[in-house]
């Protein structure tokens, strides 16, 4: 075991260098390597962003909501893909049917197998009197219940040649497959999507430079990073950067990319700048548009301070296919060992994308997706 002497008079800001990044050499002197790795995953204190404020880590915008608290308590990872709960609550059916399906999926219907746990009631199904009345038995396995749900009783009365199926649950599954093939999950007819072309990356006018930035976040570890590229009116490489942020969310990563891109352009002496980013929410936060209130106020205020300096800055939203170079740099920051890297030369990983965008090329994008 290694015992380390800690000077309690030292402050965290003493371990931050002049570039507002962790001073790894000082950290390695004072802390073991395992602790240094954990510290590097945390954003260092930055005086330019103002005083620290409380943040709710279980939401994308760092603000508390009942929805985010519910997902955190239930340990549910919110997915961008359509879930079964969306299919239930957004389906075009009566509310009582939605509530029934919701309780069925949560296994919370008061079946006899449930009530028998806290009462003296019998758990056997009263219809068939063969098995315990569970959710699965009630809606699938019970012969008499399935006859009613499929309307087989009416057919038996009106059609003398009708015979009950030996396995009613297979008939239920067959009906469900037929309905699924005819209708989409949202309750409407499935409409084919027609791919559309979005506008390609365009060169700025003479005398202007264009900054493209993007953020990236690992879904598993929540480690975030960002990157950006500066190009002149010919579409040629001027400068680039990658920044390993640490534990953060997608919106903060996008805003940090905008702040770093503008700061780098200012330091290089450019005074007419067009900045493009593929996050409409981040652009709104910086330009005072919708969703700009209380979303990542520290980083957004830093961007607004940069914009209000004595120079011309235009913020524009673009689609992801037109922001490929910045996307590549942002993702590369997640694997970088250095926190902030200023790229004087063009990396090989973006050369093909830069050449394609300079010629006006852009892959097709499905606007409906």
From TrEMBL:
GO function terms (MF aspect): nucleic acid binding; RNA-DNA hybrid ribonuclease activity
Gene3D superfamilies xrefs: Ribonuclease H-like superfamily/Ribonuclease H
InterPro entries, sorted: RNase_H-like (IPR053151), RNase_H-like_dom_plant (IPR044730), RNaseH-like_sf (IPR012337), RNaseH_domain (IPR002156), RNaseH_sf (IPR036397), RVT-Znf (IPR026960)
Domain Reverse transcriptase zinc-binding: residue ranges: 64-146
Domain RNase H type-1, residue spans: 212-332
Pfam families xrefs: RVT_3, zf-RVT
PANTHER family named in the record: OS05G0353850 PROTEIN, POLYNUCLEOTIDYL TRANSFERASE, RIBONUCLEASE H-LIKE SUPERFAMILY PROTEIN
Name of the molecule in the record: Ribonuclease H
Upper classification of the organism: Eukaryota, Viridiplantae, Streptophyta, Embryophyta, Tracheophyta
